[in-house]
Amino acid sequence: MRIEQVQAFIEVAEQRSFAGAARHTGAKRSTLSAMVSALEDHLGVALFERSGNSLTLSPMGESILPDCYRLLTSATRIDNYCQQHSLGVESQLCIARDDALPEAFWQGVMHDIKTRFPLTAISVYLAPPQTHQTLIARQTVDIAFGLYTAQALPHYAKRLAPIDMRLVAAPHHPLSRLPNVHRDDLAQYTQVCLSHLQDDRLVSEALFSANYLSVTMFELMRDAVIQGTGWALLPAPLISQALKAGTLSRLPHELTLESYHYRSLVSGPQGPVASALLSRLTRFLAHEE
């Protein structure tokens, strides 16, 4: 029994005729007929009941069709595994990322990557960027993506693109009514900022004041600012839709803001899956600039 014979049987069963299967597959009708006959000879059963131009599955054909689907799926999976192995495609990829980029982008890119590399097991861990270097060093993840400052970065950090940061508040927040916002103005109101664990201690990244609300994700910061809890410094790609919708307002200011870059951290060689992911990120960030 050959896989090609099983596939021919399935095609004929689905199309309900040899002529229809030939049109669907581009194979010759005589070739499909010969393969199905060879399969019937091998199994010692009739898979179809033939009456003139009428073709229907026999009871035995109906019985084994589900197993033939399973057999074909398994054979395809084996072929794909071997092909991916010969091409050096990762069997597993563990990723850490922050949420500085829109979630819709990540959902789309992960769907595309899994469609392109269906046999690669992918784990994604959402974590503040300050923790990524430790995750890489401990080999908890293979690659990390995040919005990092230039301070204390390892040599294997790769800069993908600069990210503009926006000073924002809700439209109804008192700061949004000022013609120009100064450092002293910001210090009077709650800052919504990031927090992360450092040496078993929770560290908050407040800029100008001890009055803050610190959370672990940029999206949580954005949502708190939209509710009017306070002001924040947020990555432009994440809040572009909120600014267009008018649920966030940019604050006019003359402050010098710290430079951020979106970067990747990977300490080992990159396989095709990681390279494809990097390529998609690079194209997206180039469009955002």
Can you characterise this structure?
- 43% of the residues lie in helices and 23% in strands.
- With 289 residues, the protein is α/β, with parallel strands linked by helices.
- It folds into three domains: 3-86, Winged helix-like DNA-binding domain superfamily/Winged helix DNA-binding domain (Arc Repressor Mutant, subunit A, Orthogonal Bundle), CATH 1.10.10.10; 92-160 and 261-288, Periplasmic binding protein-like II (D-Maltodextrin-Binding Protein, domain 2); 163-258, D-Maltodextrin-Binding Protein, domain 2 (3-Layer(aba) Sandwich), CATH 3.40.190.
- The protein has a five-stranded mixed beta sheet. Strands 11-7-12 form a three-stranded antiparallel beta sheet. The protein has a three-stranded mixed beta sheet with strand order 9-8-10.
- Strand 1 and strand 2 (54-57) form a beta hairpin.
- Helix 1 packs across helix 3 (29-43).
- The chain starts with a helix and ends with a helix.
- The model has no long low-confidence stretch (mean pLDDT 89).
Q: Tell me which oligomeric state these chains represent.
A: single chain
What is the CATH class designation of the largest domain? Alpha Beta
What is the CATH homologous superfamily assignment of the largest domain?
Answer: Periplasmic binding protein-like II
Briefly note the structural class of the backbone. alpha/beta
Describe this structure in a few short sentences.
By secondary structure, this protein is an alpha/beta fold. The chain has helices spanning 3-15, 18-25, 29-43, 59-86, 103-116, 132-137, 183-187, 218-226, 236-245, 272-288, and strands at 48-51, 54-57, 92-97, 121-126, 143-148, 157-163, 165-169, 191-198, 201-204, 212-215, 232-235, 249-250, 260-265. The strands form four sheets. It has a five-stranded mixed β-sheet. It has a three-stranded antiparallel β-sheet with strand order 11-7-12.
